[in-house]
Amino acid sequence: MHAQKLPAAAGWRWLDAGFAIFRRNPPLLAMLVVSYWLTVIFLNLVPIIGAVAASMIIPGLTVGLMQAARDLDQGNPAGLQTLFGGLKQNPRTLLLLGALYLCCTLAILGLSALLDGGDLLRLILSTKPADREALESGSFLLPSVFVMTLMTPVLMAWWFAPVLAAWHGQSVGKSLFFSFVACWINWRAFLAFGAALIIVAGILPGLLFALLAGVFSGGQGSFVGSFIIMPLMVVIALCVFSTVYASFYASYRDIFGQPEIV
């Protein structure tokens, strides 16, 4: 297993490559992303057990999305069966990866309780919106920074782990190790990729929404605007998130090359 070391510019190219993959079949990739979301949401409706089950199958569903992106990239057919087909590739390892990720996340959130008495953990687990005064007071800032700091190496270890387990037949330990190393040696590219995500998936859609809201603000314009803005933002969100998921595959393709098994 060899991971290529890429320049920082590669991070920006991944997002461009993701959009190129998305353009090959926008309705299909958008449908798979929505199916991914709905599957996770429906499972989470079941108390406790559903949340655990959702966490355990996310690596398999991620592999399914990556497989769909790979098929589109290579001009091969893909469909809804591609998404759930990811659950069949080295399933035991993928389930273990999901369970272990859940344990790591809960452990880190538990440790954050030592800083704020569990306020951040209760906020995340609660279905109620956050108290405005608590947010403005900045009481969540320190535990949030603490959680993000500890979650960074976890995310690095899991970034490629599902596809390394499914496509290269690696064990839990090896997939986590090689994923972490690949992210570590390409930290510049991932930093650039993160900046690109913030701009494309955050700043630009936000500016567009603000612009449209300003154009249609007040009176009947506001009423008419709601029928234009909301569908448009849904379409934009599907395009952006489909591109982002496809860009995950692009990062794998550039760093590790083509799969050895699939």
UniProtKB/TrEMBL annotation:
Q: Which domain of life is it from?
A: Bacteria
Locate the transmembrane regions by residue number.
Answer: 34-58, 94-115, 145-168, 189-216, 228-248
| Entry keyword annotation includes Nucleotide-binding | no
- Supply the InterPro entries for this chain: BPSS1780-like
**Keywords assigned by UniProt, alphabetized:** Membrane, Transmembrane, Transmembrane helix
Q: Which residues form a coiled coil?
A: none
Q: Where is the signal peptide?
A: none
Name of the protein in its database record: Transmembrane protein
Q: Which organism is it from?
A: Candidatus Dechloromonas phosphorivorans
